[in-house]
Amino acid sequence: QVQLVESGGGLVQAGGSLRLSCAASGSIFGIYSMGWYHQAPGKQRELVATITLSGSTNYADSVKGRFTISRDNAKNTVYLQMNSLKPEDTAVYYCRLTTLRRTYWGQGTQVTVSS
Question: What is the dihedral angle through the alpha carbons of 75, 52, 60, 21, rounded to the nearest 10 degrees?
C-alpha cells in the first residue's frame, strides 16, 4: 500500500552535485523517520543520512559537510542534496521510511560519479 518513488539519480563528474527526491504515497501513519542508504557493488547497504519528523538529522561521517538531508512533512517527501561528489559515492541509493512498526524501501536509484 505504501510506495516510495525516487528521482534525481544519474551520472556526474567528481565535484558535481545531484539532488535526490523520494515521495511517499499511500496510507502512512506514525512516521518516525525518513532517510537514505546506499549500496555499492560487493558492499553492505549502509546509512547515508536520516531525518526525523521533528527535524533531527544524522549523517554518515563520509558525507558530513557535503550532503544535506531535508524533508517536507506535508508531502511525505525527503530530499538529499549531494555536493562535492566523489567517485566513492558511486552506489545505488535507496530511500527508507520508518514507522514504529514497519520499514519501507524504495526501488533504488543509481548514482555514478566519474573522475
Answer: 0
- Across 1-115, the runs of DSSP E, i.e. the strands, are 3-7, 10-13, 18-25, 31-39, 46-52, 57-59, 67-72, 77-82, 91-99, 103-105, 109-114
pLDDT digits (tens, 9 = 90+) for 19-73: 999 999 988 778 889 999 999 999 999 999 999 988 999 999 999 999 999 999 8
Residue 21: its pLDDT value, please?
98
